[in-house]
Amino acid sequence: MAAKNYYNILGVKQTDSEDAIKQAYRKLAKKYHPDLNPGDKAAEAKMREIGEAYDTIGDVEKRKKYDQELSGGGKQKPFAAGPSKAPTSNRPMTQEDFHNMTRSFDNMFSPESIRDAAKQKASRKPMDSADFFANVIGFKGPNKKG
Fold first, then answer.
1. In Å, what is the CA distance from 126 to each residue of 102, 130, 133?
2. Sign of the dihedral defined by the CA atoms of residues 18, 20, 23, 27, in that order
3. Which are the contacts of 4, defined by CB distance < 8 A and separation ≥ 6?
4. DSSP string spanning 80-101?
């Protein structure tokens, strides 16, 4: 989440309009303005905070980015796993489910399946680069008819 909640600082809701945000800013700016509170360091600090908040959520584009960050969307890594789209169930896993999962795992990594995969790989012949281009993109080469 963001370090500061600018909506709370201005005393508005995230769903409030631009006009409501502007009115809240003006009201607070009048209250904490340095000219009206000479020498008051707390008022100066509050005014800076109010200005920072309005600068961010008073601008449409900055507000969109801020809202994304506030909701947690801005902190995701580019290739981080997001919420699963797989169907979920509240049913607890049964002994049969666990057995089926274990059997599938054992079949994938059994010595027989590993040996079969190695045999398949060894039986393949390497592909010539001309054959590769012919198979993948249909390029026959300058001297081949086809």
1. 36, 12, 14
2. negative
3. 49, 52, 53
4. ---S--S----SPPPHHHHHHH
Angle between helical axes of 41-57 and 18-32 (0-180°, round to 10):
170
Give the SS3 label for residue 125.
coil
Q: Is the Cβ–Cβ distance between 82 and 76 less than 8 Å?
A: yes
Kindly calculate the radius of gyration of the chain based on its CA atoms and give it in whole angstroms. Answer: 32
CA distance 74 to 141: 49
Q: What are phi and psi of 115, to 5 degrees?
A: -65, -45
pLDDT, tens digit, 9 for 90 and up, residues 32-44 = 998 888 888 999 9
pTM above 0.70, yes or no: no
Cα separation, 119 vs 115, whole angstroms? 6
What's the CA gap between 56 and 69, in Å, rounded? 12
CATH number of 6-74: 1.10.287.110
User: For residue 10, which of 1, 21, 2, 18 has the smallest C-alpha distance?
Assistant: 21
Q: Which of 75, 73, 70, 55 is nearest to 13 (CA)?
A: 70
